[in-house]
Queue: 4 jobs
Job 1
Amino acid sequence: MNLIEWFNQNQGFVMAFLTLIYVTATVLILISNSKSTRIMQQNLLLTDKIQKENAKLALHTKRLEAFDKLNQLVIKIYEEGPKSDYITELLKTCTNVYYLFDDEIDIRVKKIVFDIQRLRRIEYKARSFAQTKKEKQSLDEHKKALHENLLESLKELTEQVTSYLDIGDSGLDDEEDDEKEDDTAEDKD
């Protein structure tokens, strides 16, 4: 009975003590949840990075094949000029490249595809609608300018794809190799 009487007499103190325990437990739960959320975010970032690398490795041979075909077409176009059958093949290859690579390469491929479509429209106009010598000459000049733009864009695309496909000795990107070397140097200090 003494204990019950003591609690009745000191109920304010007991309530304050219980509230303190409750607040402390709540703060500890919040801290724990914050740490788990941070760990989950790091794990998600790591998982995303691993999935991207796995996709990159899984698509690597297809990307190399598409890049090889693109290079062969670029060489043919440089040597023999942008003939109609090369342009058709280039359009197909660029579509493959578009679906196999990341956004930064996609933008350049879209520009090349757009230039190819413009080139085809100009060639069609030159064949079908150009009647005077001046009209044909104007369309030919426009076609030559598009050829030069197309060749320059293809050169930039092949350089960009080459750097994209460049994988270091350990199968990781060069940037990741540099990061690992930096981490190793920091661990030694």
Note: Residues 168-177 have pLDDT under 50 and may be disordered.
Job 2
Amino acid sequence: MTYLEDHHTHSSEVREPEGSGLVGYAAIKYAAIVIIVLAIMAFLAWYVIPRIG
């Protein structure tokens, strides 16, 4: 007597949501990171570096 189970796993698959929502999330996240880095660089260029030199 054997017991066979067709599809049994304990790991969950990562599925991309319909309408490429994962791609949009990544684009917004990385765009925000770039904007923050540019703001920090502008602050350094306009306020910190002129006071040093």
Note: The first helix runs from residue 21 to 52.
Job 3
Amino acid sequence: MLIAHVAAAFVLGGFILTDRLVLRRTFDQIALRPLYEKAVLPTAIAALILIASGAAMMQNAAVYRLKAALGLTTIALFFACPFINARLGKQARFVYRLIALILLAATIALGVSIDNFL
């Protein structure tokens, strides 16, 4: 289960980071539209695998519930991004994306700390 969770996290997290750090800085949003349309299904599958495998590994401890909450919020923000970005101004979009990246980093850090210390 852990391998499926890590693989799905790499697919979804890798796409989020690549999108934020490379694609959005290099290409125009209109040029990226076909890529985003094709990426919805693979990222949705990765998100479902990530959620299901995370739920299967979850234990009855507050730290696991915190990691699950951070992870689910990050996934929700990622999939809501096109809708929210269409309604926000340029600076608000930056803040929104920054929050999503911070949540992603916090989820990863918490997952690593759980693995190392529990």
Note: The mean pLDDT is 85.
Job 4
Amino acid sequence: MTIEIPQYGLKAYALLYSRQGIHGKFKQSELDWVVSVSMKKKIFSLLLRTGWIKKNPEGTYSCTNPSDAIKGLLEFRVPGIMKDAKRKYAFTQLSAVEIWSDFSYVQRGLEKSPYFIKILQKDLSYWKEFFNRNEMPNYVNSGGTIGEFMILIPVHSLVFEEKNGFKVDSLKETRAYARSNEVYAYASKYIEYTYGASA
């Protein structure tokens, strides 16, 4: 899995890859004549952390295959990221429909993968910092980008249930949301068949 990197990191990766390919091994000294020592450390730290290069057992580095790195930018990371969350949240709207329908209804694709979560208004700064630290685009109430992103819906109180390891809106609330639009008819029928027609 790779994460999007700033232009200076991409240029450094391009330089390392153009010199070494995916089979070549190199040390940090490869950039000695190009950037300062502090910038070199920053670049290698960035490329390692985001999956663009890997460290070999003998202390050298190798480039990740560019094809794998590019495809890795679109991998789904949110389910793993949410395991580290320390504040209350609840997947809501279409995300809750996904979870309660055991993913028989899926709203996402590689090109667009929104997640909707309710959060407490008082925790908004925590969540923005949490997702920024995990390099996950996030918006309050609406927004979007290519790939995965979070829509944060601040509320004053939060009630949730646990389902498949996730905190999610109640079955009753999710069932009502699924019934609200014909587009979710399959998921609504699945939920009714699995859990019954009423809360």
Note: The longest strand covers residues 112-120.
